[in-house]
Amino acid sequence: MNDKLNEIFADMFDLDLSEVGDDLTPQDVELWDSLNHLKLVTAIEETFRITFSMEEVNAIDSLRKLRVLVKEHMGSSTCSPLYAAGVS
Amino acid sequence: MIFVALSLRELAPRLYYQFASLGEEEKNSEFCRIIQHLRDWTEAARQTTDALLLISNFSSPPYNQLGIADLKLANGETEFYLRLNLALMELFRADSRANLFDLDRVLSRFGKIRACNPQMHYLARMEWHERLLPYIADELFRYINALLGRSKKCLVVDLDNTLWGGVLGEEGPEGVAIGHSGPQAEAYQAFQHAILALKQSGIILAINSKNNRDEVVELFETREMPLKLDDFSAIEINWNHKHENLKRIAESLNIGADSLVFVDDNPAECALVRELLPQVKVIELPRDPAHFPDLMKSLPDFEKLEISREDRDKAKQYLENRQRSEYQESIGSLEGYLRELKTEITIRAPAQSDAARIHQLFSKTNQFNLTTKRYAPGDIEKFLSDSKHVMRVVDVKDRFGELGTVGLVLMDVADTVAHIDSFMLSCRAMGRQIETAIMNSLKQDYLQMGRYHAFLCNYVPTKKNKPVEEFYESQGFTLLEKRPSGEKLYRLSAADSRLDECSHITVTAEGQDNE
Description:
Chain A contains five helices and no strands. Chain A is mainly alpha-helical. Chain B is α/β, with parallel strands linked by helices. The interface between A and B is small, with 12 and 9 residues.
């Protein structure tokens, strides 16, 4: 999961994998603006088949935070209401 | 093209969020405000651009605020959306520039509950789910296809396991599945209805099948089916290769092979046609006939912005064409035949109501087209209204019936010279010297009456307009220059203009210009 997440992150913000580290925040990454933030979140939701709440989306302020949230979601069995309804 | 996607949530949030609390007066005034707003917007866009305008209707939300009881209410939410969309449809119905985009249907097809990601809506005001976008794009493609004149003209179908279930040669006419005798039969029946609907929209139908012709005729005569043999304008039932049959079909209908869509259930036949006649669009049917009807309806290839009178009558006209060639054979000489056809043409200034047909001629005429300029509805509107352009359309009829509006001339005029920008004739009107009759009339009206000193014009070669390469030479024009591209420039002065013999055609020229 960690590798895949780094890959998506690097891809989205046009970074080399070696540059990707957990301390990165929107201030450090040039392309991490509000629109790309949502694109990043969507890409991760699609890849890992998880859904963040709006509150979580707004709380993601670093790659570390994002990684923690992904882990939490992957660990729990609750999935999005839409996925649960078989609508994806 | 300008595409406007409308959302009541954005345009009138009170209606969207508070519908249940609004009074009658407020609902009505919002209704009028929205329609007026769109009318104003369309008018402003019309004035400032030449683009085709594509305006969506409103998609009703997945749930009513008042639930199922809303359906009993007068002017409830359900009715409000229906009325709003009806008003939009009426607003653009007779408009050749502004077209309705049926967003509500696209969203329904996709699933309204999935069409919006509510989180993305609240986070970013995103109206649509990302996954809906390809469906919107598909629908837009239908309009683009039609606008660019890329629509196909003819559907060619195989027979066994395509129009009916089973192999006629094995099952016999009574054995094949069609009608209401079972699920298979009903699916093929529905498929035939879908094909018949295409014919109503002006698509020519043809048969390309490996079969014994007599057996097929017997089946059409004995079994009750939506499609009759007379619905097909070209029929190739034999044991030849299908790509060769397709070439013959294109030739007999006088259209290009790239105007054909071929439908067959056999993967090998499909592959062979794709390989040997790649211009033809090949649709390989899925294994289960249950999917055939919707597959046919979902094809973007036959889309057109409007169905004209010519479209509705097209199949009849091809039938009349067949009668014409039989008549020609019975008379023998071409001259005698042309005289006996009693062709009458009317050359007239177009009305606003001709705009759709004019666009069709510009976008679909390939062979008899001297310059092949593909003008958009916005350009056509300009030609109809400004005084720098003169347009003439040509209606044709003969002893067998009406051919409809089949000819078009566009000139842009300066002080003493008229430049013939476009000169075209639909393929079904070719070969009877109608072009000469039109040119004679132009010479009379514009040169010999002293209105202009000369015509200037050009021929621009394309893959398909070889038949008219020498057209201007044949009409007495002087070749001024031949460019390396093959383009030829011509001039005809009033002093040199003479009329060519064309007495077998009766010409009525009406509606002079108001310059």
